[in-house]
Amino acid sequence: EGDAEVDVDEAMRSLPSHQQRKVAKRAKFLDKIRVASLSATKRSPSAKKRKSAKGLSASSLDFATLSATLGEVGVDTAVLKSGRAKRKNGPGTLKRQQRLVASESDRLRAVLAHPAFRADPAAAVTNH
How many domains does one find in the chain? Predict the structure, then answer.
């Protein structure tokens, strides 16, 4: 068990800070759920009856399935293997980037040549 804790600590340190915060928040949330479910099962029967008269009681909610649905607090293995999350946005290949630059340049030339833009650029941009 000690080795597992060391591995988790190492994995946490290798993550970016925003992912460390995310994992920490999830751990806190799951701890709160566990505490709430334990306190709900320890309540006296009279407290349960009073609670049920108002509506759903905490003991009627199934926190075990909720915590199972949320998943265990851990580290994304895809992020650990590569060291970083893969970049998803951007033009990608050099050829795509060149095509994007060419199309955007054509678009800019068309805007600059437009008579409405030549007459009053600020109004043309505002109206568009």
Answer: 2
- Residue 46 is predicted with a pLDDT of 60
Q: pTM of this prediction? A: 0.30
Q: For the chain, what's the residue count?
A: 128
Q: Are residues 2 and 53 in the same domain?
A: yes
Spatial distance between the Cα atoms of 72 and 31, rounded to a whole number of angstroms: 11
For residues 35 and 122, what is the distance between their CA atoms, to the nearest angstrom? 60
CA distance 27 to 20: 11
My answer on whether 69 and 26 are in the same domain is yes
55: left (phi over 0), alpha (psi -120 to 50) or beta: left
3-61 pLDDT tens trace: 767 777 788 888 888 988 998 899 899 999 988 888 877 775 665 565 555 555 565 56
Specify the DSSP class assigned to residue 83. Answer: S
